[in-house]
Amino acid sequence: MQTLEHRLQINSNEPDCGYGWVCVAACFTINAFTWGVVSSYGIYLAHYLSNETFTKARPIDFAFIGGLNFAVAMLAAPAVTALVRRYEIHLPMSLGILIFGIAYVSASFSWRIWQLYLSQGVLVGLGVGFLYIPSIAILSQWFSTKRSLANGISAAGSGVGGLIFSLSTGATIEHLGLAWSLRLVGVMAVTANTLATIFIRSRNRVVQPASIPFDIVLLRRYEVFLLLTWAFISMFGYIALLFSLSDYAISIGLSRDQAIQITAYLNLGTAVGRPVIGSISDRYGRIEIAGLLTLLCGLCCFVLWLPFQSFAVTVVFAIISGAILGVFWVTIGPLCVEVAGLEELPSLLSLAWLTTVLPTAFSETIALQLRRPGMKREYLYPQIFSGLSYILASFCLWELRRHRKSLSRTDAARNQSPR
InterPro entries annotated for this entry (predicted)? Predict the structure, then answer.
């Protein structure tokens, strides 16, 4: 007869139970102190664009640095996936903590633009990649019926972190200066991410995932092509909107404090909206909800962001878009499971990260090139660019939904046919 302790140990290792919720808390913390920190780059961007902190630097330089946070993180995916396959999750995550801390401390000593490229661009991206990529597959291993909810709660960490760091970054820059603002971020991130890494656990020994860094076989599947195309196109809209909103607020005559508040409201929307997205995805369909919200975000750009230039409407847009603009980050894990299965999850996630490298690297650069300083509506073309990206991306998920339903009908007809 099994002892109570033994039965509890078994139950705690089953999906939707026990230690999985500890892993949710750990992943929430990692999101808060990686992507939450990165999402506050809009505050740094507005500061860099308004002050000649780095001589001979152009606006496009600062836009590209922010894009590198995402692009380098995604570019590191094959190497991180290979390390996880060989050494499990804790070694690469520990390396990520070290790199992330070094990145922000070294950025505080930067006085030339190439140094900022290396520190606040490349090293921050590497740190995020080594921390985040091992963690993203874990919750799908621990949860089944509540998979999207768990991922939504975890992804909300970036909103909570973004809210905290958006407000604190502006204040620390004003009262302590840019250098100490960067150092404080580095110290806090290292501390929080270390605690999260200690508590996080994978179920790789149970699931035994393939963990192939670049799986050519997966790329041949139409469903995978549609999912990756959605990721590629939607990321252009996401980065342009996320990083541009703070400087856009200044361009329409709002104060710097109001611009910081708008970034904070966007992150508040992220913190509240992502668990809701996860919950309704589990109930009404993960592909359907992801496609609907991608379309809705694009429409909001045209209905709320583009026509109006007041603080109140911009706040409303920031809250609504904050809840849904990062639908990719909430749903990509569960969607990969839907398309390829749990065993292929790390391999398909690695492909998804690589797919987003180019849009994350160049989206804000494109947005700033589309900007027209001196015009009455300086951000008109970046707004159109962002909205169209989301709308076009949504078509990929609607086609994915149609294709899967078609396959289901075909399989049902085959099973009902006489043998």
Answer: MFS (IPR011701), MFS_trans_sf (IPR036259), Proton-linked_MCT (IPR050327)
